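Q: Here's a chain of 114 amino acids. Please give me its 3D structure as tokens.
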Amino acid sequence: MAAGQYNLLIEQGATFQLAVAVTGLDLTGASAALQIRATVGAEEPLIALATPDDGLTIVVESSEQATIAMVIAAEATQELDFPRAVYDLEVTLADATVYRLLQGVVKLSPEVTR
């Protein structure tokens, strides 16, 4: 299963929210992680989200359908300062199989109101 390509636009100083529908995988007991880095090889992530209590939530609707909700607080987006970065979203199933669900470019829209 190849990762989907989806580019993100984060508005600096605003809460970022995105819900990703997942079909064909049983996410019961799964975990997820998302990292944004300046480049693929950058040592430290600019943002790191994870389940269950760090910005990612998995809602299982059935064994074939789920939603992964991501939230980055306004306070965290306020601190971002980059024109372009990269990210991916990975899920680890209950049997330890890892899938990269999404990947792409992250653009930051600078905040004017401060």
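Q: Can you summarize the key feature?
A: The first strand starts at residue 4 and ends at 5.
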